[in-house]
Every structure is written in C-alpha cells, then in structure tokens.
Specification:
This protein is mainly alpha-helical and about 300 residues long. The chain contains 13 helices and two strands. It has a two-stranded antiparallel sheet with strand order 1-2. Helix 4 runs antiparallel to helix 7, helix 6 packs antiparallel against helix 7 and helix 6 runs parallel beside helix 8. About 35% of the residues are buried. The chain binds acetyl coenzyme *A. The site of acetyl coenzyme *A has 26 residues, from helix 2, helix 6 and helix 9.
C-alpha cells in the first residue's frame, strides 16, 4: 500500500497543483529539482562572463547601459534561483563549491567565445530566445518556488531578447562590414543555441521522469522544434540565414525540418572541453575567492546584530 503523504503528492501532481517547500515529496523529486535549478542558477552566473567581456568596449553609452542592465539581471536570476534551491534544503555555498570543482554542470552555451559586438546581439536574440522558449513552460513547473521564479525571469529575458534583436537590426542597416559581422556571429551561435535544449529525447535520461513529475512540461526535442519555427521568420526579417542546408519548411507537419547538431561537440563541451570552459571556471573561482572577505564581513555583521537584539 502507498503511504498517505505519497498518495497526496501523486494526487497533487495529477491535479496539476503546485508542490510547496513544506509538502512531502519523494527524494528523487527533490534531487531532480536541486540538480536542475542549481544547473540553471550556475548558468545564469557563468552566463554573465561572455557578455561581460564587452562591457568596457561597448560602442556607445546607450549600448553600454543596456548591456550592463542585462548582465546585472543575470546575476539577479542566479541569486533568485539559488534561493529556490535553498527551499529544498540545498546549501548555496555547497552548490557554488560543486560548480567551481566541476562537479555540477552549467549550460553548454556559455563555453563559446564572444568575438565581436555582434555576438552580444546574437546572444540576446538566439541564446536568450532559446532560454525563453525553454523557460516559459517552466512557469507551470510543478514546484511552486521554481515556477514563480520563472515568471519574473522570463519577463526580464524578453527584454534581453528584444535588445539583442534591436542591436542586430541596427547593425543590419549599417555597413556591409557590419552585416557580415552579424551573419558570422549567427553562423557561430546557431548550432550551440540548438544544443541548449539538451540531448535528443531518446538520449535524454532525465526527461521521462521529469515530465511525469511535471517539472518539465515539454521534451527537449519539442522545445527545440518550437525554437526553430519561431526563429526562421525572425531571421528573414533581419536578413540573415542559418548555417543549415537541411532547414526547409515541411507543409505536412506545419514545421521546419532541420539538421542534426553535432552531438559529439555537445558531449565535449559538457564534459569540460569546450573552447572557454577552463577560463569560465577559473574566473568564477577567482571571483569567489576574492569575495571571501565580503561574505565574512556580512556574516560577522549579522552575528553582531543578532547578539544586540538578544541583549
Ligand atoms: N548544457 C549543459 N548540460 C546539459 C545541457 C546543456 N545545454 N542539456 C542537458 N544537459 C545535461 C543535463 O543536465 C543532464 O546532466 P546530469 O544528469 O548530469 O545533470 C544531461 O545533460 C542529460 O540531459 P537531460 O536528461 O535531457 O537533462 P534534463 O532533463 O535536466 O534537461 C534541460 C536539460 C532542458 C537543460 C533542463 O535541465 C532545463 O530545462 N533546465 C532549466 C533551464 C536552464 O538550465 N537553462 C540554463 C541556460 S539558459 C540561460 O541561463 C540564459
């Protein structure tokens, strides 16, 4: 017989209700959420680096202000998501430790270099576009704190996506050289953006269980298809092409057919061997170590304040 708490958990999932921090939940559900939300938080924090790289070299004050706001948003998303993991009993310091020791993953996409300012635009348009595609359904994820966090995160992501598209549209109205710069950036980021959705469904070990628990609402391949369908008309509006000879409209399916990303490259990147993995983690580790005095001071201050209150 199934124990009562387990029955009410199953019933809540079946009725599409939210699971909250104090509710009973299976260990596997808790572990899966901590894994996914921590990976998501790490991605937001590591994701500050590729674009942060251009903050000091923005082409105008306006672009700099936009980029700075965006990079700060990513920091906020990371902190918000670490807080969501804490509602599950995880410890933020431990999660950070696992990230900088390479024991927990972050999104593959942030291991590619940003070579020109067009990359800033393409990251906004395609990378944040893919993030929105993946994260809008997570607003209906079964775990309450994660789903609620996603609502705010998605609103900010849509600003990120629009600033990217607007930046690229501006460059496309510029010189031939600027248009070339945009197309080259699109060529470099298209396949890695498709990889953000994770491995194909038949090679995605976590999908079936995460779908059953309604943590994930769609499979990796479903979301990848949705992203392709959404992006093609936007590319046409911009006047760029995607580097995929197999990309064609399939009238029968009402969707675009497209080629297969290089999954061996994906495995290399998530295995720590992408172009920028070592640099990204080294920077994160240095920031963590250089920030130790701030954490110590804040902890000492909090301790002193609480003694005052108790006195
Ligand atoms: N980059 C790095 N690792 C990945 C990626 C990726 N693009 N895609 C899948 N993986 C990892 C998974 O974490 C899993 O590893 P693990 O079991 O060691 O943790 C493994 O590859 C197998 O993948 P799946 O079984 O498909 O894993 P999962 O069900 O967790 O699906 C997905 C992966 C779609 C990324 C899911 O975790 C998710 O939706 N996460 C929330 C969104 C997110 O993290 N976004 C971050 C980038 S967006 C941004 O920050 C702008």
């Amino acid at each position: 017989t199934v124990a009562e708490p387990e029955r009410s958990f199953e019933a809540a999932i079946a009725a599409d209700q939210r699971i909250e921090p104090r509710d009973w939940m299976p260990d596997g559900y808790r572990r899966t959420l901590i894994r996914q939300i921590a990976q998501h938080a790490h991605s937001e924090i590591i994701g500050m680096q590729p674009e942060g790289n251009w903050l000091t070299r923005s082409p105008s004050l306006r672009r700099k202000a936009i980029l700075m706001a965006k990079v700060q948003d990513e920091a906020g998303h990371g902190l918000y998501l670490y807080s969501a993991t804490e509602t599950l009993g995880a410890d933020r310091a431990e999660l950070t430790g696992m990230l900088i020791e390479g024991r927990q993953k972050y999104s593959s996409i942030f291991n590619y270099p940003t070579l020109t300012y067009a990359d800033v635009g393409v990251i906004g348009w395609l990378v944040d576009g893919a993030a929105i595609c993946n994260q809008v359904p997570l607003c209906r994820s079964s775990y309450g704190p994660y789903a609620r966090a996603m609502i705010r995160v998605c609103k900010e992501e849509s600003f990120h996506q629009r600033q990217g598209f607007e930046l690229l549209a501006t460059m496309m109205r510029g010189t031939a050289e600027q248009r070339k710069m945009v197309q080259e950036a699109v060529n470099r980021w298209w396949w890695p953006a498709l990889m953000m959705f994770g491995p194909p469904d038949d090679r995605s070990p976590n999908s079936a269980q995460s779908m059953a628990w309604r943590i994930k609402r769609h499979t990796n391949d479903e979301l990848r298809q949705r992203f392709v369908d959404m992006s093609v008309p936007q590319a046409e509006a911009l006047g760029v092409t995607f580097p995929d000879p197999d990309l064609t409209w399939n009238a029968e399916r009402g969707s675009y057919d497209f080629g297969d990303p290089d999954w061996s490259e994906f495995m290399q990147v998530i295995g720590g061997n992408g172009a920028c993995n070592v640099e990204r983690i080294a920077n994160r580790r240095a920031a963590h170590e250089n920030g130790a005095w701030v954490r110590e001071a804040a902890t000492a201050f909090a301790r002193r304040e609480s003694t005052k209150e108790n006195a």
